[in-house]
Structure formats: C-alpha cells, structure tokens
Design a protein that fits this description.
Blueprint: H1 6-15, H2 22-33, E1 39-42, E2 46-50, E3 58-61, H3 69-90, H4 96-113, H5 116-123, H6 132-155, H7 162-170, H8 182-207, E4 216-220, H9 236-244, E5 254-257, H10 271-298, H11 334-346, H12 354-366
Parallel strand pairs: 1-4, 4-5
Antiparallel strand pairs: 1-2, 2-3
Helix pairs in contact: 2-10, 3-4, 3-6, 3-8, 4-6, 5-6, 8-12, 9-12
Amino acid sequence: MQEPHAAFLDLFEAYTGQPDAIGPHLNAHMGRLSAGAPLLVATGTDLVLFPGSGAKPRILNFRLGTRGFKELTAISHLGVAVPYLRRMYELDCAQWRDDAIRLKAAVEAAQRVNSPAFWRDDVAAVAFRGREEAIAGMTAYACAATLRVLDNLLRDPTRIDFEYLRTEWLDVREGGDFPIAMNDVMAATFALVFLDAAYRTITWLGEHDIAWDRAMVLISGKAGRPTAGVTWQTNSMCHLLWQASGQQLSPDRLYIAPHGPDLDLTQLEDEAAASRIEARFREIWFSTNATVKMGRLMFDGYPAFHRPVEAAPVVDAGTREAAELPRVRSVDDRRAIITRLRFVMEDPAQQLANAGAQFIVDQLCGNGNVPEAVVVPGLDNIDYRAG
C-alpha cells in the first residue's frame, strides 16, 4: 500500500490523527471548561455517574440486579419455544423431539416451584409487591398451557402448525383449545422485567439530584443484540433517562457510542484508574459534541438535524406496517402491545426490552415512581385463575 506524501500527511495530522492537533486541542479545552458537569455513562448492564470535579463515581447495576429477570424471561420464552420446536420439525431438524421432551421436563420442574410465596420471598422484588399472587397465577397458567401444547406436538406434530399456533396458542378464539393467549403472557413478562429495572433506575437517579441541563450522557458499547440499540428510538435507556429527568434531558446531550469502551467496574475502585476512565468517556462525549456544534456554526441557515423524542405512531385495526414502535395508549390497546412484540423481533435494530418499556416508564414517571400505581398489560387486566 502506497504511503501518503509526507507533506499531505503533515497537513492531515495538523487537524486530526494525533493527540497534538486542532481537533483534540478543542476537545480537551471543552473538557476543561465543563470539568464540573456530571457525566452519566450507561452500558448494557450498568449506570455510572461521574459527578464531576474529581468526585468519586457512583454505580448502579440495573440489568443483572433485576430481581426475577431470568424467572420471568423463562416464562416469556415459553411462547417462543413452542413455535421454534414446530419450525425445527418443519425443517427436519432431528433434535426437535428431544428438545421438546427436555422443555417439558423443565416446565414441570418450574411448575412445582411456582407459588405466591416463591415470588414474594425468593424473588422478593420491591416493584412486584402486591402482585405475587397474580404473577404466580400467570406462571401456573403458562406452564399448564405449555405442557398441554407440548403433549399435542409430541403426539401429532402435523396438527400443531403455525396456523394453529397463531389462532389457538399465541392468540385465542372463543371455544378454542386455550382460554388465554400466550401473547398476553409474553407482554406481561416483558412489562414486569422492565418495571423492576426502571423503578430501581429512576430511584437511583433521583437520589443523586443530577443537573440534567448540564449533564453529559453517553451510552457506550453493545446494548442487547449486536445490531440493536444504536438510535434514540431503538435504545430503551434513552426514553427511560428522558422521562426520569422530568423530560429535561435534551436529546442533544445524549450520544450513543456502540463501539465505545466497556466499563470494568472493578477498576473504578482505584482513584487513579477511575480518573483515567472518566477522562476517556469525557473525551468521547466532547469529540462528538464539538462536531455537532461546529456543524451548526458552519452551516447555519441550512436545514438542521432534528431528533424527535416521541416518534411512536398509533396503530389501529387498519394498520398493516409501521416504521417505528407503536405507542401504547392504554392497557387495553392490545393491538399495539402485541405489535411491539412482533416489532422487536422483526426489527434487528430494536432491543427486545423495548417490547414493554415505554408504557411502563411513562406510567412510573407519571405516578411518582410508585410501582403499585402502574397497570401491567397482560397481567392486571387478565384473570389467570379462571384460565
């Protein structure tokens, strides 16, 4: 590969390409001017607040600290696992029957453990208080219904085709094989998982009295699937932080860096290492911010970039496709709730958590972050005991 001419290389590096250049100098100076401003860094599992002026960072593990995450996700997976098994059968995948038998045994084991006491004493999520009986009832129904459809699948896989799954299992009809749709179970589990994570995140953010008008927010690294969460509308953290800030956080102050560095929380325990990590994240934020502001200064008078906070469309019975996740208007807006389940699976850019995120966050922030005031779709409006 031919090397660039030395004269042009020097010209290139006068602006960028090395630490001692125009761009890095401006970024570093902007950093010094805002050294006291709070910096909030979010990864796929953690939130780290660097308060500024050398103060010690504060940490919240919002993902792995979620109580009942795997338990609820396991129940949510039942609605997907059966269609996967049917697809394996269609494609002559030899493992489908063994996998179905293994799934059946796992469902039976979970069925034996499930009870209101389990959700109250073992899972013990603050956000679930008062709902333990309802969650246990939903779990009991989901397990019993899954065992029934698995028995039918193992007995006669030709009967359990996708038309059957769509009309009798994922959705239901009057007088059909199942009284409650697994789509509703999946909607409830997604919502419950996010209820706990959002409740704890909003509580933690409120404890630190962040100056949101000056805050610098950076979402760094992978968030969910490798293709997901790289825009405001596809990253569930954006809407959560915006609502948690009392809608004070401007989209102009939040940047998503999918290729940004991961956070090693153990290094933050060392003061010198924490200082270096903070400086690195501030550099990323300011290098992005400098380009944004320069574009406005250089091209004032031309059409400006605008990132809408709310872009969710409303879907109705006539809607056949949507370009963004639809808005859920109420707990009875079932078409939008189930459409979001489809959307997060079909759009690789979406985080799966977005299926239940927005409606839950809006309710929490509209009710003083009181979980009991939130209506959980697929749970609070369905009597699983009757099912």
